[in-house]
Design brief:
Elements lengths: L2 H18 L7 E3 L7 E2 L8 E8 L11 H18 L3 E11 L6 H17 L3 E9 L5 E9 L16 E5 L4 H10 L20 H15 L5 H6 L6 E4 L4 H12 L2 E5 L7 H10 L3 H7 L6 E5 L4 H5 L7 E8 L5 E4 L5 E3 L12
Parallel strand pairs: 4-5, 9-12
Antiparallel strand pairs: 1-2, 3-6, 4-6, 7-10, 7-11, 8-10, 9-11, 12-13
Helix pairs in contact: 1-3, 2-3, 4-5, 4-8, 5-8, 8-9
């Protein structure tokens, strides 16, 4: 273990974390320092609770980039879940398991700084957690509590036949960024000398690949958009495992069918570039890559007026429609073929 981190010890690390925490969210009666946090329940009595973990070797590699981005991502992926229900994040708990081989104290401080910066962006207070040693890689787990919107939280189960199926932003960027990182490209770094650069890859394509790397390393949850869609959307989910998988969840929970038009999928420019570079189908990256953390939702009306004020410039695309029928998504390709849309990321079905 890093000598500085070993000298600091577990309780020194907890004090270090405590010194970084700022009180932001209302309702924190007692935060870090006792056996449990004491929180006031939001008005209305409801509470949103979500948790996600990032595991070294599964979700990230230290060699890929900046520890600060890792801290930001750990918080951001949880904020995305709150966004998908139209809620407001309030309090977070941090679970941290540290392996003997690292990280260094400096890297850990950068990670914590990133996590705290993301918390500041969304008005979140870190109120507690746990630390321990790990016999494998670093484990970073965040549990986030939030307040549901007035009335009722958006769910996956409200889609109705006749609704349009919409998505924010672009898709496939995170998967393309992962491909780029695995091939040796790094955020903000020039093209590596030991990687052949194809003649067709110009400045625009390289910039798109760098943008895709940024999407993978430091996603931006659509919190304002999720809140603005309350009262407009009938069902919503964040795109964490890919549209193929997440549209399937909407269908299953709402007991409806969806028909997705392949030609309407907003593919990230980095996915197009990495697809050409690696031979991967950009549409497949967009549908099955996951970790884009966009919002996939249904609505009977045009959602763009609701989003224009809170998220100016955010692309919102109608990619299909909801109908009665077998509760699965279908993909309509531009050549006229239709197929059940299966796949998406599944941690328990990953091979290799």
């Amino acid at each position: 273990m890093d000598p500085e981190l070993a000298a600091l010890g577990e309780f020194g690390l907890i004090n270090l974390i405590r010194q970084r925490v700022h009180q932001r969210s209302p309702g924190t009666i007692l935060g870090i320092g006792d056996d449990a946090a004491l929180l006031a329940v939001p008005a209305g009595g409801g509470l949103l609770v979500t948790t996600d973990m990032l595991l070294e070797g599964i979700h990230f590699q230290w060699r890929w980039g900046r520890p600060r981005d890792l801290g930001r991502k750990a918080m951001a992926v949880n904020v995305s879940d709150i966004a998908a229900m139209g809620g407001r994040p309030l309090h977070a708990l941090l679970g941290l398991a540290i392996p003997p081989a690292g990280p260094s104290l400096a890297d850990l401080e950068a990670l914590l700084a990133g996590l705290e910066e993301e918390a500041a962006t969304y008005g979140i207070t870190l109120v507690g957690g746990d630390t321990c040693s790990s016999q494998s890689g670093l484990v970073l787990a965040v549990t986030l509590l939030g307040a549901p919107p007035p009335g009722q939280a958006l769910r996956r189960s409200g889609a109705r036949p006749g609704d349009g199926l919409w998505v924010t932003g672009t898709l496939g960027g995170a998967a393309a960024g992962l491909l780029a990182l695995e091939r040796g490209l790094r955020p903000g770094a020039p093209w590596p000398a030991d990687i052949a650069r194809p003649a067709w890859l110009g400045a625009a394509a390289e910039a798109a690949i760098q943008a895709a790397i940024a999407v993978h390393l430091a996603p931006a949850p659509r919190l304002a958009a999720g809140q603005a869609l309350v009262g407009c959307a009938t069902a919503m989910i964040d795109v964490s495992d890919g549209v193929a998988s997440d549209a399937g969840h909407l269908c299953a929970e709402s007991r409806v069918a969806t028909r997705i038009l392949a030609g309407r999928i907003p593919i990230h420019a980095g996915a197009a570039a990495m697809g050409r570079l690696t031979g991967r189908d950009p549409l497949d990256l967009a549908l099955r890559g996951g970790e884009d953390y966009e919002l996939l939702f249904t609505t009977p009306t045009d959602p763009r007026p609701s989003l224009a004020e809170v998220a100016p410039g955010l692309a919102v695309t109608r990619i299909g429609e909801v109908s009665a029928g077998q509760p699965v998504p279908r993909l309509a390709r531009e050549d006229g073929r239709e197929e059940v849309l299966a796949g998406g990321f599944d941690h328990l079905r990953v091979s290799g």
